[in-house]
Specification:
The protein is an alpha+beta fold. Helix content is 31%, strand content 22%. Strands 1, 10, 11, 14, 15, 16, 18 and 23 form an 8-stranded mixed sheet that branches.
């Protein structure tokens, strides 16, 4: 670029920044009053993925993301306590809500009647939407909660042990639900309150094809009116929605926008362009490498930065040779220069060790420098020791293995050749198999995945991150790790009512599993969210339950005057 062009670009950015400041000052008083109408176009954290299933009984992890504006749950995060509103909670985690951050959504109140009996009172007057061919509008009642629980409990696709702590769920009266526990479970509020598999559906769907998006209905602020796989899903406002939003002491009906449109875009360059040109109002997941360019070309964008709630790793199937030998697994960790990946591949926008526990989990998280030397060693680059361990395990000339990776992840697709090169330097050869997400996920859930499985997986919460990944027979256990003693300790953790005891146990179990190296542990990246300033009542929040953004979008309004003044229609 010439000096003249550089000067022109600098002046353009300065003028645009000045215009933005003027627009914000002139429009502030009007913009602070909520406006109704318009569309909200969102590139969610899962922008590359279509809905996995509309049937909750399929136990699809993304269901609360896809249907979370239509179906509601017993509990949700209280957005009045968000950092952007002066509170202490960022609401970024994929599925971790500290108890003090939670409000009742469908639940009005809850209490322990005795140590094994939880009683939940439902809000009155909450209506299921009228859905031609499915049901007429009617009030939510306790039988719907019972129906949903039994639907999930009896599904052949359920996660093993997930509801084993619940002996029964009963309707005491039309708005009182009684959960009887066979044993205490520290995740009770998450498991059937705000988790991945707890969205309440009407009992009228018992005999319908629940996989058909046209049959999806619920009590939420939107109804699903259009779904085009690989393109978009359209949610339209429900005028009679029960909840409200209070702003500066005034109570408003919600949602504010007429439509929320999830844009499904597989190509990274295309969704970045959609943000730049205003076709996306919010883009929730942006890699660091694109941030500087976006800041220069679109200086009006608002930003937030977070440490990803998705850990990256290569799972090594320990039920197959050679990964049944811990020396081989440790050797592969030593062969990968994790510090170089963090500093160069991620440009310093990553943490060396932030999985399986996440720093946002407070005392559950133990920094790497506080861990035993045997764990710290796994994050050091030592190819000579890696070769020695391989030789000791009987592989002096290395070996070859197949690695599957999802083509849906730009980051992992860029990372896999680097891992291939690191391992080749110690004689280990990778055969790389990119896959579309549906086939990639199915390979793991049917246990037909390859010996190496490069993936990202949500942290979820401090206990689930260990249970789902390392307890015998769990669906999300790609390394096939199995240790009866670890399983026993996990059961004991769930039965602990004393959180300080749980924290101690979880920290030790995390150290133990890191030491066992069922994965090649990889850095956790920092990720960015960007949105245009006409998106109001929003501060970068992502979830108020397990991957569930619906209540966040319902409280956003669009400042149409600002959008026009900035040159967008």
């Amino acid at each position: 670029m010439t000096n003249a062009a550089n000067l022109t670009a600098m002046v353009t950015v300065t003028l645009r920044s000045g215009l933005l400041a003027l627009v914000l000052v002139l429009g502030q008083a009007l913009a602070d009053e909520p406006r109704y109408g318009g569309d909200l176009n969102v590139g969610t954290v899962n922008i590359t993925l279509s809905a996995l299933s509309w049937d909750p009984a399929d136990w699809a992890w993304k269901s609360p993301h896809d249907a979370g504006m239509i179906r509601e749950q017993l509990f949700a995060g209280d957005l009045d306590l968000a950092v952007s509103r002066g509170g202490p909670f960022p609401f970024l985690s994929d599925a971790y809500l500290p108890p003090e951050s939670i409000r009742g959504e469908l639940a009005e109140s809850w209490a322990w009647e005795d140590p094994s009996t939880l009683v939940i009172e439902l809000r009155r007057g909450i209506m299921f939407h009228d859905k031609p061919g499915v049901m007429a509008a009617r009030e939510l009642d306790a039988e719907d909660v019972v129906f949903t629980f039994e639907l999930m409990r009896d599904s052949p696709r359920k996660i093993p042990t997930y509801f084993d702590h619940i002996a029964s769920v009963e309707a005491r009266d039309s708005h009182t639900v009684v959960f009887r526990f066979s044993e205490y479970n520290a995740e009770w509020m998450y498991r059937f309150g705000y988790g991945y598999y707890s969205s309440i559906v009407p009992r009228e769907t018992a005999d319908l094809d629940r996989r058909d998006w046209r049959n999806v209905t619920g009590t939420g602020p939107f109804r699903l009116t259009r779904y085009i796989r690989g393109n978009s899903q359209v949610h339209e406002r429900v005028d009679s929605y029960w909840d409200t939003e209070t702003i500066d002491g005034t109570e408003y009906e919600i949602p504010f926008v007429d439509k929320v449109i999830y844009r499904i875009i597989k190509d990274e360059a295309t969704y970045l362009s959609a943000l730049r040109t205003g076709r996306l109002d919010i883009l929730e997941s942006i890699r660091w490498i694109a941030v500087d360019h976006l800041r220069k070309t679109s200086p009006e964008l608002q930003w937030s930065r977070r440490l990803s709630n998705t850990g990256s790793f290569m799972a090594l199937r320990i039920d197959r040779e050679p990964f049944d030998d811990v020396r081989v697994r440790r050797a592969l960790n030593l062969a990968v220069n994790q510090r170089e990946i963090a500093e160069l591949f991620y440009g310093g926008h990553a943490e060396l060790m932030a999985y399986p526990q996440h720093p946002d989990y407070g005392d559950y998280f133990q920094p790497l420098e506080d861990m035993p030397a045997s764990v710290q060693e796994l994050f050091d680059y030592d190819p000579e020791k890696a070769k020695a361990l391989l030789a000791e395990a009987g592989y002096p000339d290395g070996f070859e293995f197949r690695v599957q990776v999802c083509a849906c992840s730009p980051t992992l697709m860029d990372l896999v050749p680097l891992l291939e090169d690191y391992l080749a330097q110690v004689g280990v050869r990778m055969r790389i198999q990119p896959m579309e997400y549906g086939a990639f996920l199915s390979a793991m859930t049917t246990r037909t995945h390859s010996p190496g499985y490069l993936m990202g997986s949500g942290h979820v919460n401090p206990t689930t991150t260990l249970r789902k990944s390392f307890v015998s027979g769990q669906t999300w256990n790609p390394s096939m790790y199995s240790d009866p003693d670890f399983d026993r300790r996990m059961r004991e953790v769930y039965q602990m009512r004393d959180e300080s005891a749980r924290i101690d146990a979880i920290r030790q179990m995390t150290v133990d599993i890191l030491d066992e190296a069922p994965y090649i542990w990889l850095p956790t990246e920092h990720v960015y969210t960007a949105w245009w300033p006409w998106v109001r009542n929003y501060g970068g929040e992502l979830r108020v339950g397990a991957v569930r953004p619906g209540p966040i979008y319902a409280r956003i309004w669009i400042d149409h005057e600002m959008k026009r003044r900035l040159g967008f229609k």
